[in-house]
Design goal:
This protein has 186 residues and is mainly α. Helix content is 58%, strand content 3%. The chain contains five helices and two strands. It has a two-stranded antiparallel ribbon with strand order 1-2.
């Protein structure tokens, strides 16, 4: 069969000759900001939307957290060598992510302090935009925290798998303990 370069999309064409209209132009670039755009999944070779890829990633992450929670509940002596290794790797990654998150928080705080030290009239447009984005994010976080505390107080809080055993604060099990006490109090 002729080389694909010398054929049209039906596999037909003159052998060893370039088609009269030249080679087929490349497809248009993918827009990665459009959730409806199909993106080739390198692993399976199938076409998936970005939303489906994100959904699959969240599912895998949730499965991993459930597996690690089950391993963490086992006694140290009852764990297999594979479980010990995978849990150690999971913990290492979690600690590294938490450390980087704390570093980013410190970086944002220092940037905030730097901008706030500048008189308002002398701030650049970029600094004003950064400050506005920072304040909006802070407001959203505070609102989410307030709503979560309200749910805990009313006993409506259902701990997610993330908060059940793997909190960012390093105090593992804190959210679960609080939830259990709140639900048992009523």
């Amino acid at each position: 069969p002729p080389h694909p370069y010398y054929t049209n999309h039906h596999g037909l064409g003159k052998e060893h000759s370039i088609p009269e209209d030249g080679p087929t132009p490349p497809p248009p670039p993918l827009d990665f900001h459009n959730n409806d755009t199909n993106v080739s999944n390198m692993i399976t070779g199938t076409i998936m939307t970005l939303d489906k890829q994100r959904q699959e990633t969240r599912r895998k992450e949730n499965d991993l957290k459930k597996r690690m929670k089950a391993i963490s509940e086992k006694a140290e002596a009852d764990r297999t060598e594979e479980e010990k290794q995978s849990y150690a790797l999971f913990e290492e990654r979690r600690q590294r992510k938490n450390k980087r998150s704390r570093e980013r928080t410190r970086e944002r705080k220092s940037e905030y302090i730097r901008i706030m030290d500048i008189p308002e009239q002398q701030r650049t447009e970029q600094e004003r935009e950064w400050l506005m984005t920072f304040m909006k994010a802070k407001k959203r976080k505070n609102e989410g925290d307030r709503m979560r505390r309200e749910r805990i107080k009313r006993g409506l809080f259902v701990a997610s798998s993330y908060e059940e055993g793997f909190s960012d604060s390093g105090n593992e099990g804190t959210a679960t303990t609080t939830t259990t006490k709140t639900l048992n109090a009523e």
